[in-house]
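Can't attach files on this board, so I'm pasting raw text. These are the components:
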Amino acid sequence: MSDSVANRPSPNGGKAAYRAKGGSLSGKVKGLGLRLEKRPEPSAAMAYLTPLLAVALTMIFGGALFAILGKDPIDAILTIFWEPLFGEFAFFYRPQLLIKGAPLVLIALGLSLGFRAGIWNIGAEGQYIIGAICGAGAALALYPLESPFIFPLMIACGALGGFAWAMIPALLRVRFGTNEILVSLMLVYVAEQLLASMALGLLRNPDGFGFPGSRNLQQYPSAHNADIIANTGMHWGVVTALIAVIFAYTLLERHRMGFAIKVTGSAPRAAKFGGVSAGRVVVFCLGLSGALAGLAGMFEVAGPSGQITIDFNVGYGFTAIIVAFLGRLNPLGILAAGLLLALTYIGGDIAQSQLQLPSSAIQVFQGMLLFFLLALDVLTNYRMRFGAGEVR
Amino acid sequence: MDLSAINPVLLIAAMIGAATPILLAAIGELVVERAGVLNLGVEGMMIMGAICGFIIAVNTGSPTVGFLAAALGGALLSLLFAFLTQVALANQVASGLGLTLFGLGLSALMGQSYQEVRAPRPGGEPFAALEGIPVLGPILFSHHFMVYVGVAVVAGVWAVLKYTRVGLILRAVGENHDAAHALGYKVKRVRTLAILFGGACAGLGGAYISLIRVPQWTEGMTAGVGWIALALVVFASWKPWRALAGAYLFGGLTQLQFNLQGAGVAIPVEYLAMSPYLATIIALVLLSSDKSRAPGSLGRTFHASG
Amino acid sequence: MTEKLLELSGVTKAYPGVVANDAVDLTILPGQIHALLGENGAGKSTLVKMIYGLVAPDAGRMLISGAPHAPADPRAARAAGVGMVFQHFSLFDALTVAENIALGMEDPPGMGQLSARIAEVSEMYGLPLSPGRLVGDLSAGERQRVEIIRCLLQAPKLLIMDEPTSVLTPQEVGILFETLRKLRSEGTAILYISHKLEEIRALCDAATILRGGKVVAECVPAETSAREMAELMVGRGLKTPTKGAPDVGDVLLELRGLSLPPASAFGMPLRDVSVTVQAGEILGIGGVAGNGQDELLAALSGEARSPVESVWFEGQDVSRLAPEARRVAGLLCAPEERLGHAAAPDMSLTENAMLTGAARQGLARRGWLDWGAARGFAERVISSFDVRTPGAGTAARALSGGNLQKFVIGREVLQEPRVLVVNQPTWGVDAAAAAAIRQALMDLAAGGAAVVVISQDLDEVMEIADRFAALNEGRLSEAVPTASLDVEQIGLMLGGAHGMEVAHV
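---
Top answer:
Structure tokens for the assembled complex are below.
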């Protein structure tokens, strides 16, 4: 599917598409006197404007949704976006912003590299789980040994676990041309089952009176990913996320691999002509995003969550897809988008307890955000013209 | 363990039932892809169908009306996808993912107060009279109406694609949208209709899960069936009858896995539960070498040029 | 006085920033072969798209047989008796000949009956075709037959043909002309779009010349010289490239029995291709599209790896080398397709300069990119090759075809290749840019590099190449000096008439 899109030999297809586009200066879609004209170059202004517009529209339509659910829309929006930052208990919620934002940013950064190259890893949730299992597993294997090397070892194991899990779709795609979208997604379900098995079996807390779930790593000092400065939410995962932002930015702007990723996504045949190895880009993008997702999982299990449980994963791997797009696949944008989405999680929790707003409403809210963004994106590459409609 | 607890006739009969949601979703997506559109929102449309069908069936007491509502719900959600990809020219992969995330959320929201409710009794087994025939009876005639609808849809899609002008135009649009446009066919209209059909089929598949198979509403109850359906289209090489065979194979595997769990096989439940997903991956690997049958314009955005 | 079949008056169509057609008048009589002549971008395609209902005019009037003609879509145009043979993108590779034809008809009969009619028409006009074959497996000439038969089955009053001969061998052109003359004798009018002047002089009864969207002249081709028409088309005198006798040196590039399976389902394999190219010479490789040109370029650029010991560069076996390594060695290429292959459309010229210039121009060091240097290189290309663009930061797709092509060729030429391989260097490029590109290639060879020009434009090959080889069904003929060749011989080298036969008039 995506393979067939990108690689399917189509002697006419590619050429035809280009001639069709290159053949004239404009094109149109029919309907209601509205036409779309392709811009000669993408609009930079729109690229910055559309995420903001999307957020604004989501607030309006989200508000309408909350009104339908019988909540005061303004109250609900304020609860979600204002309370966590400036409300009475902001001191409690602000650290949460970092705790929830860090995994989103880490995962979204990795995904964005692949998305730019047309490589669709949508199994970050699975890589996140495996990273957590491997990281926690390393620590639990050494329990109750105390050593400064345990935490670094956990980091390595978490990253490696996520990397290895992502290598499955990567290698299958490179070797057999198997669709990475479907394989990576299927592996989420496999990882979830593996997580259940670990929580119930291998990693179950022997002193846990038979309850499912591992030992709590928060009570294992060598393995605990504690706040670096108490009560700020600033744990090692946050630091790693910030480093990853800088790394991804430098990679894309300054390094050949970043350039290879961009060309591959923009024009795969031109990339091949330029000497980019498609397989290497696939392995790099999937591998790195797997490792970052694995790291996110490991920091989570060693810190905020503390233990391997059946419901350890809460969908960061999927929400990160929204973060990546909202951040326009740009590292700095992703940082901002990650914090915004973290805000909706926290605000959603508050709204749930204060206004009895169902948690799924927030999920809908996030989905809306992605839709508005995708719909508005057309403005970046096309100009809208109103007026007398054409035949087509 | 006690393998003798597994009755092969009942197993096959159950497998046909288990295959139906996958089949319905896959045949819908097959039509969408033959029109050149890749809609990764199958999972989202299925779960929307599941909840719409469930709510309406519970409130009207009629599973049939429920199924109609499910088709409508799936199609409505797919209309959103059609708008994004055909009007706003958004990336199809991203839009499809968005559809799935949105559908999962929206269905959960809609299903809030239906968690503990039981679906009305399905009824509607059109050939119940023939069920008494040994072996063939349970296998062929014990099923709900929708199972036969699923097979009929496959046959219909096959015949339309192969023998009718509508089918020819649909294939042409999927094969080379620029050429189809040059000949005066309405690429976006054809694709939008295909997307709606796909949404309706996925909705029916979802409702089969919530109304007949389970029959109850739980959040995220489609559990990846929509994704398996997507994979099925690839390894059916975009051919309807192969999709049917594939769906039965997977339905069989899912069912066998349940039965083995029930029979207390010495494999942990989690590993059995993984098997359909692993099997999907293996099947994808085995069949991904042959991409030659993929529609030529699949996944490419069409924008008419002057 | 004969009744007019098609009459256009004051037809105007503007796109943002450009008036594609400006008050165009055109009259076609029944049974007339009427040439529509003009450079790329003169407005020929826009005009015929309006007649065929793909585009609606902003102003003006169209009449067919005296009745207003304002087709809302191609179906309406077909119903009004207009048929069109497209040059590109109107066939479906994965569908059969009969299915393709059925798609072009308003009310096709059943498949069995349709197949019979296809056989009948193809017999009558000398265009043999089997209805059950997949179009993707057909040669370029056969694909054109599908288009023609698709139109003829509708019995059109007016047949529009867009550059029909660019995919044919000279022999096939002759046969096509017989078919067209037979149609004319039956009263069908033909609107014939081309920029090949000799063809028009041989075939057409009348010609309308477009320049910059306006009708600049009408003439009777048989009574007008090719040079006069060319100058009307271009609007000024043309500088023809100057060519000295080649001063050849060592063999720089050698292919030894190169065979490659096709990269795609409907691609063409390379079959036992052997040839040598020496320093200082230009080797022209002619051939009808789809005979292995893209595959040959891929084998040379390194996009496709070849079996060992089949591609040799300066005495080294480079068959297994990647594109980057070949560039470092001095073997450079420029593919046919500017947008999407030679250049990334949405990326800036600076980024596109980085794409192939990174290693040889020192734009990257140990993986780190030097954007300042890339910009400098892009700007050098822009100024040396007179690329008209606001700057190096402009996206490739914003450039006109000719300017982008100058950039793509210039990017490789300025890297001082030892061997440069170009595919269709002047396809869809205006005459001035084409002349500049040809001159650059000749200068490169004169400077001691070896140049391989793959082109379907035989005039171009004959003009600049020292030796000529023909690519046919993936096989390369022996290379012979161009001076000793005439068009007839070249036609035979290109594979003759591919089994076509003259129409049974």
